[in-house]
Amino acid sequence: MDSPTRPMPPIHHLSLELILIPPILLAIATALSLFTHSDTNLYMLYSQCHAHARIDWLSRIPLVGPLACFLVSFFQEAVLSPVRSKAIMSVVLSYVAGLLTITTVEGSRLCNRSALLLAFPTATWLVFDLVGGALVWELVIIPAFFHRAKVVIQARRQGTTTTSDGEAAAEPDLVLGEPRHLSTLAESLSIPVSIAIGYVLPSLLILLLPSDKTAVPVFVWLFFPVWVSLLHQGVRTALLQVFKDHANWPRSFHLESSLLPLVTTYAAPMLLSLASHIYLIVTLFTHPRDDRQEMTLATTRFIMVNMVYVGLTVLYWAFIEAGWQTVLVMLVATVLAGPGAGVCVGWVWRESAVGVDWIGRRLGWNASVIAVAVGGTGSRRGSGDRGEEGREGGNGPSEETPLLR
Asked: Where does the UniProt annotation place the signal sequence (predicted)?
């Protein structure tokens, strides 16, 4: 666990208004960059769909047909060349798999279950995938996480479950609970299974099938947030029903403290990222000539601009909530194994900075009192006699006070 002298991340001492300035500036830069990199080929692609010259069965659907045809054709063109575009898109898709995993994990933590935008991210991901791109990360997802982080930190700083009027606080679990825990052990299987089937499988079909047979897989893939959400909830419910008599399954648990669930959760996006990273490097040496045609260049360029700004936004997110060391770990892992693995490794490292143990050390007396109180009711370790002494003795908690995990 980190040293108590480790600097506090900016989220602890900067105002929310100040923290949100860079994402807004990134959103403006994104809009300008996308406008600059817009290509007449993209407009032509929509015109072909509007004229029913592409994907006839889809483009003729009333009202939404031309737009749906355009989206499917856009991603079909993005993987059209057999070497360069498939290599680029494999890296992009693996990165999205990593982002999808970390946001699903964060949405399943107890501290975020009352934040609807975080706990139920399906609509946000649909807008990102179908319309908004990087702008959704910069103007919706990241601000929502920053706002929630401020709420959690403030609740633990106050260290009370009642208001000044003696009424119950709105979210007492943020003070007395284990907010960084996942809700149940079933999450360790429901998250990876839902992402593997709902996202990774259609992504692989897009990459591996011949380009003239990808219309249906791309159409299915476009709605991956819906499939992932349904599978996540369905698998979790099924596991809890099957293991309802098992003592451990209904209980909350800390993912980063449990090796097997941790590996299971992040295995798919990390393996996909490593494979795509190696494939991209190999193709750059074995096929130095870019085999993309004009339309494929236009679509992949547009996607790459989007993902670069998403990456910058995620790095800023990691810096604000966890400090520069997490950003460095994320960048190193990205160089070694691709951006999908980078964001997953960085997120595991990030937990050491945002976990309750570390918050307890940095927030001082109130947080220590909270830890002692919870420890006396069954904290996982160090919560026995020493916790009782901390409550019954006349002195305030010291650096030796056992902290909640």
From this structure: none
